Amino acid sequence: MNALLEVKNLNKAYENFSLKDVTFSLNQDCITGFIGTNGSGKTTTIKAILGLILKDSGKINFLEKDIDKHERKSKNKIGVVLDEGYFYDELTLKEMKNVIAPSYTEWDEQVFLKYIKRFNLNLGQKISTLSKGMRMKFAVALALSHHADLLIMDEPTSGLDPLVRSELIDILLDFMKEPGKSVFFSTHITSDLDKIADMIILIDDGQILIDEEKDALVETHALVKGDNQLINNQTEKLFLNLSQTKYGFEGITHKIDDVCRLMPGVLMERPTIEDIMLSYIGGNTYAY
């Protein structure tokens, strides 16, 4: 599988937070979920990739070329949807499009108008009057109208109702039908990724903890439930996290065979991405 984007040893230090040797790659024909809690480093990483902040050190390659040395050519092939937005509220949608479109050498007006129609947007409407969902749809229309190979989205579903989130998922799946495309989807709403992600990257406190195929990640972990009497000094070490109440325990394990051998009678379920994420970044909880 060919790497579309490679991030190597990315570092960025602030007073109270830093990215620490962040390294990963995004492959063609993949939707990669970039997950972590708020403040974990997702947005900082994306801004460094896009050149919106200066990195302290590290290298970022896009299509095997240094993105800093080939900035204009690289950004022509990258579509961006940021949660915080980058629009001028006093402009209409058409006026905002006229500001952005000249930045891209492969801008396709017909594709843009197709998305405007699909999203039922009014080009004469002012940005300031758009709902959060409509702003997101407009951002997606702009991002997909210059034949980008990589779509980078920072918390695109945050604050959206389920119907709009579902519509966005459909758009991403349509985008991925064309060979060679890739989506980098940053979110803390991991249920969206359960449906569509091929790869999962987990970042916490500025460090990459997981970089793995989603299906392999889910299949090698299990959500275990059972009686508290099964928990002892030996068995509790089998879990990444453990929650206990007077009714029993549940926890996430990646030592499935050992749990089956040492803890007969437990219930095992397929974990969600959120279950796995929280097991790596959270601690044990006890409530009796």
Please give a structural write-up:
- By secondary structure, this protein is an alpha/beta fold.
- The protein folds into two domains: 3-213, P-loop containing nucleotide triphosphate hydrolases (Rossmann fold, 3-Layer(aba) Sandwich), CATH 3.40.50.300; 220-287, no CATH class.
- It is built from ten helices and 15 strands.
- The chain has helices spanning 42-50, 71-76, 93-100, 109-118, 132-143, 162-175, 191-196, 214-219, 256-262, 273-281; strands at residues 3-13, 18-27, 30-35, 57-62, 65-66, 78-82, 150-154, 182-187, 199-204, 207-213, 222-226, 239-245, 248-253, 267-269, 285-287.
- The protein has a six-stranded mixed β-sheet, sandwiched between helices. A five-stranded mixed β-sheet has the order 14-11-13-12-15, with helices on one face.
- A hairpin with a 2-residue loop joins strand 4 and strand 5 (65-66).
- Helix 4 (109-118) runs antiparallel to helix 5 (132-143).
- The longest helix is centred in the middle third of the chain and has 14 residues, at 162-175.
- The protein is elongated.
- The model has no long low-confidence stretch (mean pLDDT 93).
